[in-house]
Specification:
It comes from Geodermatophilus sabuli. InterPro entries: Homeodomain-like_sf, HTH-type_TetR-like_transc_reg, HTH_TetR. Residues 7-67 form the HTH tetR-type domain. Residues 30-49 bind DNA. The protein is mainly alpha-helical and 214 residues long. It is 70% helix and 0% strand. The chain folds into 2 domains: 8-59, Orthogonal Bundle (Arc Repressor Mutant, subunit A); 63-197, no CATH class. It is built from 10 helices and no strands. Helix 5 packs parallel to helix 8 (118-132) and helix 7 (100-108) packs antiparallel against helix 9. The protein is elongated.
């Protein structure tokens, strides 16, 4: 007689797997470790998921990156229009909070998975948005500054989402992070626009308001 699979056990395995993937990364996580975290035997995990790849696909759906990109683009467009708060900000934040550990994987633990390109794509997407707001292409030095800033953004968000004790703490930490990040980004972009207009290519200084951008 075939064993009946229980939704509660499946959910427990998926929760344990997502936490392991977010904490240690896909490559460093074994099915035995997931089983231990779920409080069951490895053989039981394989009754629900034929492989680690199948388990990953269940907890990080294939459409998750595209959904995240759409919300991110909408949020950045709102910021470009001077709307730091509003529906776009709320929708992206809710997505991060609803999919906390899956977003951690997308932003910082994607190596060896079908979403391996997501961390670099996140940074590249934000850099391209920033470049489009400039009157001329940035110099190589200024573009490298943008990459550094947005890579730090990626890492900070992933850290907050992975380490926060609960949804409300994550929300509070992200709000505090943005209160620091957004003014710094405003200062950085003002300096880069000025450099692009005068064609000097000179690097912004702390006096231009860059100090809080990272």
């Amino acid at each position: 007689m075939a064993q009946v699979l229980k939704p509660a056990v499946r959910a427990r395995i998926e929760t344990a797997a997502l936490r392991c993937f977010a904490d240690r990364g896909y490559g460093r996580t074994s099915m035995a470790e997931i089983a231990a975290a779920a409080g069951t035997a490895p053989a039981n995990v394989y009754r629900y998921f034929a492989s680690k790849e199948a388990l990953f696909a269940a907890v990080v759906p294939a459409d998750l990156p595209a959904r995240h990109d759409r919300l991110l683009d909408t949020r950045v467009a709102a910021l470009a229009e001077g709307r730091a708060h509003g529906p776009a900000a709320a929708e992206l934040l809710d997505f991060w909070l609803d999919q906390r550990l899956a977003v951690v994987v997308l932003l910082d633990r994607a190596e060896g998975t079908p979403v391996a390109g997501c961390p670099d794509a996140f940074v590249r997407r934000l850099v391209e948005h920033a470049e489009r707001s400039l009157p001329a292409p940035p110099s190589a030095v200024h573009r490298e500054v943008l990459v550094l800033v947005f890579d730090n953004t990626r890492r900070a968000l992933a850290h907050i989402l992975r380490t926060a004790e609960d949804r409300e703490q994550a929300r509070a930490m992200i709000a505090a992070f943005w209160s620091y990040q957004l003014p710094g980004l405003d200062g950085l972009m003002a300096a880069l626009r000025a450099a692009a207009r005068d064609g000097s290519g000179s690097s912004p200084t702390a006096a231009d308001g860059v100090g809080g951008a990272t």
